[in-house]
Design goal:
The protein has three helices and two strands. By secondary structure, the chain is an alpha+beta fold. It has a two-stranded antiparallel ribbon with strand order 1-2. 41% of the residues lie in helices and 10% in strands. The protein has helices at residues 8-22, 29-36, 44-52; strands at residues 56-59, 71-74.
């Protein structure tokens, strides 16, 4: 299996998402930013890079008319 190399911020963002999920919280960008301790606008690149590496995936709000923004979820490994 190929090992992925993540920057420090990518590691922190991924850990924040999995921590939020483990607590039963929804990993919205604002919650991830609070967990990481950075402003939400600084998470755009790490979130997309983690998505490209298939570690996270973006889910849009499933409820019509109640869009709280995208959430970023860790990939479920088969």
């Amino acid at each position: 299996m190929q090992q992925l190399h993540l920057t420090e911020i990518e590691q922190r963002v991924y850990q924040a998402v999995t921590t939020l999920e483990a607590r039963g919280q929804v990993p919205f960008p604002e919650a991830i930013a609070e967990e990481v301790g950075l402003p939400p606008e600084q998470l755009t690149t790490p979130l997309h890079v983690l998505g490209e590496k298939n570690l996270l995936h973006r889910e849009d709000s499933p409820m019509e008319g109640l869009d709280f923004g995208p959430r970023w979820c860790s990939q479920q490994l088969a």
